[in-house]
Amino acid sequence: MLTMRLQTFIKLCHYDQVELARALDTMLNGPGGGHNFHWSLKKAIHSYIEGATSVEIEDILDTPTKEAERKYNKAAFENFIAKFGKAKEIEVVDQERIYSIPNFDIELKVDPWFRTFEKGQSHLHLVWATQRPELAQRIANIGTLVLLDCFKGTALGNSRYCIMDLVKPKRYTDKTISDKTKLALELQCRSLETCAKLV
User: pTM higher than 0.90 for the full model?
Assistant: First the structure.
């Protein structure tokens, strides 16, 4: 069984076969479980929503020891503030769900970070803050489809499902899912499973 975060899955969907083989080899055969580069960004966003001061948020964003991590997470946080700093209704979402992709031995950990209410409509946001690869619309569609499938029938089920790219910044919603998106998801999963067996 391949298990990973939805953001990792989205990242792998951008890769060609050589890049995918390299990334899966590192994931499956490398030492340790990897480092969550964006933990301080998530903590800063949650703290902001819960009313933390700018000094407290700055302290959180300054916590990582690596300069690149501090720099990119601060830039992503600034983009979050530019987009949602004046949101009247915004709340923390801390509900990780496991999504088993039908017909594949792939499980995704799906953890939206927050939701907004806009004109009475709930918008559930999963955050993308990775510099490379740049998030492509077609892959964002796959991510919003997984988000939708994962949370339909729950208390968050009547939401608009969004991938919030805090690098560009740009919000992708489930409005752009087409009938080809499900096929694209299946093809990506087939490629992942095949590649994982070879590394």
Answer: yes
Alpha-carbon gap, residue 181 to 151, rounded angstroms: 17
Q: Which residues pair with 163 in a beta bridge?
A: 126, 172
Range list of β-strands (E), the chain: 2-5, 90-92, 97-100, 106-110, 114-118, 121-128, 160-165, 170-173
Distance CA 195, CA 199 (A): 7
Token pair in block for residue 14: 């951008």
pLDDT tens-digit map of 69-121: 999 999 999 999 999 999 999 999 999 999 999 999 999 999 999 999 999 99
Q: Measure the CA dihedral 33/99/19/161, to 10°.
A: -120
Distance (Å, whole) CA 56 – CA 15: 37
